[in-house]
Amino acid sequence: MKIKKMFKQIRNNYVINQVKGINILEFEPDEIIRYHMVFSGRVQGVGFRLEIEQLALRLKLTGWIKNLESGSVEMEIQGMKNKIDFLLDFMNSLKRMKINQMKKDIQPVLNQEQEFEIL
Questions:
Q1: What span, in angstroms and rounded, lies between the C-alpha atoms of 110 and 89?
Q2: What percent of the residues of the chain are helix, what percent strand, and what percent coil, each to the nearest 5?
Q3: Is the pTM for the entire model greater than 0.85?
Q4: Any catalytic annotation for residue 58?
Q5: Looking at 11, 58, 67, 82, which residue is catalytic?
Q6: Does the annotation count 67 as an active-site position?
Q7: What would the pLDDT profile of 45-93 be if each residue is shown by its tens digit?
Q8: Sign of the CA dihedral running 36, 39, 44, 46
Q9: How confident is the model at residue 18 (pLDDT cuts 50, 70, 90)?
């Protein structure tokens, strides 16, 4: 168990450093939207939730993300549409994870929400 925990910590440190190194340009003001999303593919056990959380925090997006028993990942994310699009494009570009399907539905904006978190 100690080796598994050690490898997870190494992966998490790698993910956090990857996100810190992303060059994020200035975004033009855009409409605020909220999506409910479900990702399927190779999205568990690869740092998917942590990477989204860290990038969402850098982009000042709010919402939550969690693993599902089915092996999929569920998320609600809110913020400027162009920032969410940037996050999704980035996640699709990563080689260590593979999004096979992404279901996306618009939801009502939650004005009181303040942060993005892993559930």
A1: 24
A2: 35, 30, 30
A3: yes
A4: no
A5: 67
A6: yes
A7: 888 999 999 999 999 999 999 999 999 999 999 999 999 999 999 888 8
A8: negative
A9: confident
